[in-house]
Amino acid sequence: MAVSAERISVYSLADLKNTTDDALPVYLNSLKFTQSHTLTDVRLALGYSAFLLCAATFYWDYTYGFDSTKLYTTIAVAIYTLLNTVLTFWIWGVEKTTVYVGTLPSTGEKITVQSRTEKHKPVYRLTVTTTGRDGQRVRKMVDKAFSNWFDVRGHFCAKPFQQILASGVEVLGRVDPKNVVREERVFEKEQEVDGRTMDDKWASLLAESAGGEVAAETSATPGKSAKRRNKKA
């Protein structure tokens, strides 16, 4: 099993997520996906533009004085505000939590991967959206604990991470069949036999096993006893 030499703190949720986010493009690009950097390029362009505008404003003011450049400074401040507004919208409204966008040249399928975590919960939540050439979208959710691919010392283990992705996302399973865990595929087929999930089956079994006890407890409640006494009276 491939284990990274770099160690992180297993108690840092940010380190766990960032390390996993960095591993995603490495794995997907190894499967011949062509990564799109449009989202990152636009964000960098907006950020660098705002920085260059600040640098130019400082140069004008330092060279020519404030009185001579106050009109340009006013315009620069307005443009800077606009750039930062657009940048904020781009990060929170367009990029959102997207960590990867790529296309599979052989089929033309586009894949978009978004990741997130919840506070104090060491669970990696992925939303993988696959768009076919016909524009049809398929969305798949993958929620797994970080402990599935990090050892107790904080080393990232690539193999189990790749197996989870290949087993959970259809397009990745087709491209990388050697990492598909067969047991999980059988388990999924068994879940679909009667249209119920394993959680539903367990709930039914527990309800059936507890039925007698529940009935006994119900008959022994004060309300029931009082009603019986009233009827006899």
From TrEMBL:
It is found in: Endoplasmic reticulum membrane. It is a multi-pass membrane protein. This is Signal peptidase complex subunit 2. One of its GO terms (biological process) is protein targeting to ER. Residues 209-233 are annotated as: Disordered. It comes from Amylocarpus encephaloides. Keywords: Endoplasmic reticulum, Membrane, Transmembrane, Transmembrane helix. The keyword Transferase does not apply. Its main location: endoplasmic reticulum. One of its GO terms (cellular component) is signal peptidase complex. Component of the signal peptidase complex (SPC) which catalyzes the cleavage of N-terminal signal sequences from nascent proteins as they are translocated into the lumen of the endoplasmic reticulum. Enhances the enzymatic activity of SPC and facilitates the interactions between different components of the translocation site. Belongs to the SPCS2 family. It comes from the Eukaryota. The chain crosses the membrane at residues 42-60, 72-92.
